[in-house]
Amino acid sequence: MSRAMTPADLIITPRDRRFGRDQETVQQRWWHGNDPFATAFYNALSLTFPKGEAFFVESVKAFRDGTPDRLGQEIRAFTKQEVMHSREHVAFNRRVIDAGYDVTRIERQVAESLELTRDRPPIANLIVTMALEHFTAIIAQQLLANPKHLAGADAESRQLWRWHAAEEIEHKGVAYDTFLHATRDWTRWRRWKVKSIVMLKVTQQFTTKRITGMLDLLAQDGITGPRALAGILRYVFVSPGMFRKVAGAWLAWFLPGFHPWKHDDRALIGLYESDYQAAVMSHEGAAAPVAAHA
């Protein structure tokens, strides 16, 4: 039943792309529309990715033995995508540091959170990964469906986040299908109960820690106290309101029979690909007009 929900013609394609390597100047401190709150939101999120996505990979790979051939192939493609996401966010995070931010507290908090997972059963880490992959997928859907979220970002950063979003959508069912395979002897009630409890806990920690990370970065810009908290809440719940806009997709997790691919949003991947290729062709044409007429 689980595999029937994943599109039969889905192909997970690792796209080996690099962003921001050729920038001659230091990245603008408030690179997202000169908005400290928008910048803090994406910087705080990016700082979790290198270690976080390595955790996702290990959690899923722990259950790859004995999986059906197709799911095994998808796990390998998922791994390649996540490794490249980590690489690009390492580079992005260096630019955050170069812009003058001290990220040690946020990185230490991520490391401490992951340290707590070492003694947990592998299935517990897989379920946490599955829940967080749902978070990344529904945020990714918003990033591609609603241009307002990245409208103010510089071109390289915007392309990085759109590339990451497209691949998060593409592999959104891998951790879930791995969970269904790993718990194939569980009852449906047990699966639903466990994944619901974990999602509630993950949601509390995800939102709290992202807001804490934003407060840390904003404090370094001299924005503190009620002003900082009000600005964060306005940004995530009002305009552009990422947390508000993903609420419906988040709630779908708790519906009986939920599967990430019950909502097939691959059209957004196609939209990203067409926009990306158009941008590449435009850039190449501008750089080499003679070649364009050869």
- The end-to-end distance, rounded to whole angstroms, is 53 Å
Shape: globular
Average pLDDT value?
92
Number of helices: 14
Which spans of ≥5 residues are poorly predicted at pLDDT below 50?
286-294
Task: Please write the string of helix (H) and strand (E) elements.
Answer: HHHHHHHHHHHHHH
Portion of residues in helices? 55-70%
> What count of domains describes the coordinates?
1
**Using only CA atoms, what is the Rg?**
20 Å
Strand content: under 5%
Largest sheet: none
How many beta-strand runs?
A: 0
Describe the structure in brief:
The chain is mostly helical and 294 residues long. The chain is 68% helix and 0% strand.
Give a description of the structure:
By secondary structure, this protein is mainly alpha-helical. Helices cover 68% and strands 0% of the residues. The chain has one domain. The longest helix is centred in the C-terminal third of the chain and has 32 residues. The C terminus is likely disordered. It holds the Pfam family Metal_hydrol. GO terms for molecular function: hydrolase activity. Keywords: Hydrolase. This is Metal-dependent hydrolase.
Topology of helices and strands:
Layout: H1 2-5, H2 36-46, H3 49-61, H4 69-98, H5 104-115, H6 122-145, H7 155-170, H8 174-182, H9 188-219, H10 225-237, H11 242-245, H12 247-252, H13 266-287, H14 289-292
Helix pairs in contact: 2-9, 3-4, 3-6, 4-7, 4-8, 6-7, 6-8, 6-9, 7-13
